[in-house]
Amino acid sequence: MIKRTKVASAINLAVVSSIAAGAFVASSAFAAEETAKVERIEVTGSRIQRQDMETASPVTVIDAAAIKAEGFTSVDQMLQVQTSMAGAAVGSTTNNGADGVAQVDLRGMGSQRTLVLLNGRRMVNSGSGADSSVDLNSIPVAMIARVEILKDGASAVYGSDAIAGVVNIITKKDFEGFQFDMNGSGTDKGDGQNGDVSALYGFNTDGGNYTFGAAYADRRGVIQGDRSWTEPGASSYIPTGTLGGKVQDANGNWVDRTYGYDFTQDSYYQTPNERRSLFANMTQELGNDVVLTADAIYTNRRSNQQMAAQPAEVFLDVCKTAGQKDCLTLDQAMIAGGITANKDGQVSYRRRTNDVGPRIYTQDTDTWRLSGGLAGTLDVHTGMNWDVTYTYGKNQAKTAVENSINGSDMKASVLANQAAWFSGAPLTQQMIDAISYTEEAKGGNEQQTLSAGLNGELFDLSAGAVGFAIGAEYRRESGFYTPDEVVIAGESTSAQQDPTNGNYNVVSIFQEVSVPFTEKLTGEFALRLDDYSTFGKATTWKIGLTYTATDELMIRTVAATGFRAPSVAELYGGNSGSFDYLTDPWGNIKDPQILVNRISDPNLKPEESESYTAGLVYSPSYLDGMSLTLDYWRFKVTDAIARANTQDGLDACFAGDTAACDKFNIGAGGDLTNLSNALTNVGSQDTSGIDFNLAYNFELIGLDWKVSNDTTYLVQFEQDGVDYTGTIDGNFGAYSRVRNNFSISAGQDDWSVMYFNRYIGDMRDLEGGNKVGDIIYHNISGTYHVNDSTTVSLGVKNFTDEKPLTVSNGSDGGTVPEVYDTIGRTIYGGVTVKF
Known about the structure:
By secondary structure, this protein is mainly beta.
């Protein structure tokens, strides 16, 4: 029997309870809390099995009941509403450049700096190939029992990538019976439908349990132009084409372009996505205190995005002599209109290729993961436990871009059919077929991990037993991405890109110790050594302290170091072209977008970090059912893998800095033909803030009430010397000073209702400097247990249909869809049947 203080109970309340975006707390967490016999478990952030949850690290938990009540149909949705998130993690609202993946961005430090685990073990990176983050689409919501978010650095426990924290997804197991779930949602505008169905079956054996599941989810698109708040686009690439920035009027004269092209009619706010998943868990006692565990998951994702027709540009050589072929002759009308050749003797021809059709990006990805392990007890009297696990993960993807344009073929067609192209009239089908193609690429990732560990109690002190965990791990990561042959050859109207292919392995040794110095003071210590085949050794450590000042108050703090190893793409990515918005100080290039060759580096070193958290847990005796936590946090990253500022390099070279000219491969006289920017360990991050959580469960007027409030106050976010605190931008996302989630629910017997709101504080527009106001979203939901086997739920998100705020440098539709709701009021419901 275990007796807990009110503080210990409060921590268990916070950890085992239901907190979805600061949502309500599940009442079942309190049952028999003072007298229940608790077995030793492993909590996120430590490998030491313990009886209670009171560790030095702050952890937020979202359980399956909360996921259902809030109407979440994907893992990224439930994570990105947490107040501890910032930046702009890609997901269902990212139409440009995400290839359909969904990621988490804890503290806004980048998805590559948050480690994602499945049942405490690494999940394979996934996406379009050679990826550095986990695609959360590969984990179906139906299999999730709870999600634990560790909000401090954990490299000393888990190794690379856990700089900002850890997301540990725990799957359903020990399930008996059959459960069927069906959920659906749609906007009040008649689009954006989401639907998912899942089935779960489990049975017990003598000393074991086997649980199997299947899930299907389908998400439909929302077009940007179908929302009244969308600002029309104004691209300089227009369907009739421009020559040297001029258009030909009805009289054959070349005049200035006076209108733009609205690309929002073809682009998505919510991207279509279809997922099929199979999953299984098993636990079986083998005798002699040995237990076999295994879990398996397979997910197929078929997703697509759509953007306006390709904005294609080709440079036409101006004829130098009469009768010269395959070149452009500047006639008197062109000269009179101001069309002139550039320094290379060329004239730019641009056209929005609407004749061909919108760009349709498609992905067909498969992700597998199989993990198995044996665990046992060396001696039941000593409490020594051992485990051996092997995890294999693989992801492979086929991606395509329909209605792509072959730049070489388009240039040849323009020169051969100048009158047809310059007139602005629709292209013939023969011309369309000659210049268009479907761009196809393939890629993948593979991960293998073998781990062995020993944990238990070393000896007893007067205040209790000293717990420990030691172990070793071998991991191999590999990835590849092969672009379309046209892209590799540099003949596409998109930038040239080289293939990526590479691998590395790492051997790790780790240890943890938990020492009860007194009945009130406990220390937690971790040390890890990783040896990489790429850069060598990395050592990280963690020191945590918990002090139970009274039965009501506990103080906690953690100091730790961390690191992130360079990914396969960062090491072996080769050249990849990017049209960046830059100003040529020499004046040779007038176009605002200049081609930059982005280069990887096999000699990159790991990023290094320091993290610090300090806080308290308080559960007042005078207010039964209430607990609150308050934590200060700070993360500093040095040697971050980044690219130097290209514009700064151009300006420095122009001013006479020859080292800058060499670094960016700038030729004599400002020749930018081979302008390059390589990845290096030059970046940095420094961020800090305060987290506050309050949870209160009570009875009033015959109802069970639950109140929860989560607040994150951002003190500072600085990256690469730029202060992003309190700003928003389409490239970097949002770093609001204040984010707050509040919920209140009331229930009785078979029913419950909940009101939830999400607040994002005002920010400064990073590009324009204008103030972007604050916003609050209101959600309501209800749940009713029809009988012992059937439960129904109904809810409304964004009840007041708040419009997204305008951001001058927004990523889409004049705003940032990853931050603000661009879909509008959404109604959702679901049915669960158990038997």
